[in-house]
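#struct-pred
JK: can someone run the complex with zinc ion? inputs below
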Amino acid sequence: MPELPEVETVRRRLEPVLVGRRLDRVEIVDPRLTRPEDPLEVAAELSGERVEAVDRRGKYLIVRFESCRALLVHLRMTGSLLHADELSEDPHRRATAELDDGSYLAYRDVRRFGTWLLAEPGEAEPYLDARLGREPLVGSFTTKRLGEALAGRRAPVKAAILDQRRLAGVGNIYADEALWRARIHPQKPAGELDEDELKALHRGVRAALNAGIARQGATLRDYRTPDGGSGRMQHEFKVYGREGEPCERCGRPIEKTRAAGRGTWFCPGCQQWPHTADN
Ligand SMILES: [Zn+2]
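RT: done, C-alpha cells with the ligand placed:
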C-alpha cells in the first residue's frame, strides 16, 4: 500500500499538471470515498475550484485550492490517481475530475478504503496535525527529534515508527527497510535505543524513504504513478518480502516474523536483539 515515497511520487507527478487548473466537472460515484459527506455535494463543491498547490503530509496528498479550501486524499490500501487526456473504462474508478484544459484526473480504488475529505479554509492543518507526527524528510527532523518521539516507549521499535502520530509516512515496507539499514531488530523496545542506534535509525529512515522516492515508489499490486507507470523500488528491497534470501551485508538468510501485528522481515545476522542470534 502506498507509503510516503509512493504518495510523494504521486505529488511530484501531479503538481505540474494540476497547479493553475480548474476542476470543471467532478463526479464521485462511490459514497464510501467521502462519507459521512454526500458524494454529490462534495463533487458539486469541488467543481469550479482552481488548484493552487499540491502538497503532501505523511501519507496524505493535499490539493490546495485558490479558495483556501483543500482536498485531503488518502489512498489507503489500493487507491491511485491517474492523469490522462482520455479515460478508458474502469470498473474500479470511484471519482473523475475534468480539468479546464480538457484532461482528466481519475481516482481508482479496488478495495475502496481510500478517502477524500474537503477541508474548509483553516481546517486542513488542525485535522492533519491531530493525526500526524513529524515529517521524516524535513530539515528540522533531527536525531534528537526522533529520540523524543521514541523516548519512554516500551513498544517494539517497529510499532513505534509505524505510529503515524509519532512519525508521519512510514508504513510496513519502509519500516523494515529502515530498521535493516540501521541494524536494529524490529522487536527491540523503542525507548531502549541508545544514541548510536537513534542516529543509525534516523539515517536509515531517511535513506529508505529517499531510495523509494528515487525509484518512483514500489509497485506490489495496485500502486501506479499518475501516468499509469509502475514504481521500481520493489526490485531494490533489502529485506522486505525476501525471506530465505541472503542478506546483502552478511549473507545470512533473511527471516520473517511478526512485529506490531504485521509481517516483518529482518536479518538475524546484522539485526540482533538480544545478542543471542548465534547461540
Ligand atoms: Zn545481515
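RT: quick notes.
The first helix runs from residue 4 to 18.
The pocket of zinc ion is lined by residues 247, 249-250, 252, 267, 269-270 (CB under 6 Å).
JK: thanks, will look after standup
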